[in-house]
């Protein structure tokens, strides 16, 4: 009998201990599993930027597969209800370049109640030495792009995003397309839904423009792309301030009576207010205006019957080449990129040598999102991760999806610190004194910010404004972000307080210990009896 009681008591105790262990594992939010103990990690630092947002600074050994590199990582759960991921340039037009820090500061100013915690540079952009070729500036072209010297595209520099980008639910640019010579293949994008789900995709957009007055239909090649020859492009009031098209362009100017949002399912109707033929002075972009720009005989002919006063309807539809169309039809924000090396948990190596500064957007198999920046082009400091090592990087970080956004001198990571914002990496562009570390202005940034809890109970008062498409709840008091990024180094673990999961784990662990003590007392009493 005593033996059975003893066994039952031990079983109960074991259950308590197992629950404590399980809760400790499942509720802990910090720490990329085993990262600090990797043999290639020569130096390690971690610190909390905000509850649920961790930062890691690593130095990889020169003798490792990664070579000598300084790698910066920010880890968080995009579904955490008070965190917001934004792809943005915080400007009226998409061709405005800003540093990551300036974008974060402007984000705070434009969004009271929100605080940008960390940010990295975003998409690449069309450049004058390659695709955005400037009339009369053939001297800017480099490498194989010199063969396109006879095909200028713009009259001055036009810096537009290269991939599919979405800001706050609105399509800012469709991907680089075959009309933009030389065409360099399909590009992928990283998207975030309003509830914080992250996914890699290959979205494409179909635009149908119907002249209701004439009964004709055309399909533009893209939205806010280069005004290329033999193409019909559509420009919105969130695109470039001007497309700087050549004199041979033919433009249809359409105004709308109310604000429009270019997204999947959009069906908007406006009126033609201007037609600018070759040699005419173009009408400027303004709010609630769309401009169709045609170049080349057949494309101009397709809209040549338009007249001022015509009624025009524009329809937008989105699909995904990776068969996640519903997600991409409702995506809240997205950034373009290339060179994916992880998709759906399957890894593939990258060809070439690599070895230049890189920024990576990724998700892990545990559901976290990572912003990763690795410096490069600095032989005594950080040489850049070799492309051949990206396969191992995916394994070491247990990535689900991952691709590269812009790199080189654009690679930047900025974090919230005690005295404002801190540039945590050392960009490869040089300052005026000849030293490394000059941050570059970029076409957009990827930001993680703290804000109102999306799951907060709705306010009881009647709303005083029209609802928006932004994924925010009624304002509530947000937790004050951490104001420092000091951490421990040389593989020592640090923290700035206990999270909820840790508190629960400690409580259950204490209960388990009490259970063990009680069981021992009962056993001893029975023995005495």
Tell me what you see in this structure.
The protein has 529 residues and is an alpha+beta fold. The chain is built from 6 helices and 25 strands. It has helices spanning 2-27, 100-110, 297-303, 325-329, 390-396, 500-528; strands spanning 41-50, 53-60, 69-76, 83-88, 115-121, 165-167, 170-173, 188-192, 198-201, 203-211, 216-218, 222-223, 231-235, 250-255, 267-276, 289-295, 311-320, 333-343, 346-347, 358-364, 369-374, 399-404, 413-417, 420-423, 445-450. The strands form 4 sheets. Strands 1, 2, 3, 8, 9, 18, 19, 20, 21 and 22 form a 10-stranded antiparallel beta sheet that branches. An 8-stranded mixed beta sheet has the order 11-10-17-15-14-16-13-12. A 5-stranded antiparallel beta sheet has the order 4-25-5-23-24, covered by helices on one side.
Mean pLDDT: 87
The total count of helices amounts to: 6
- Low-confidence segments, ≥5 residues, pLDDT <50? 9-29, 472-478, 488-505
Which percent bin holds the helix content?
Answer: 10-25%
The major beta sheet can be summarized as: 10 strands, antiparallel
Helix and strand content put the structural class at alpha+beta
Number of strands: 25
Rounded radius of gyration (Å): 27 Å
Termini separation (Å)? 13 Å
Q: How does the overall form come out from the CA principal axes?
A: globular
Instruction: Quote the beta fraction.
Output: 25-35%
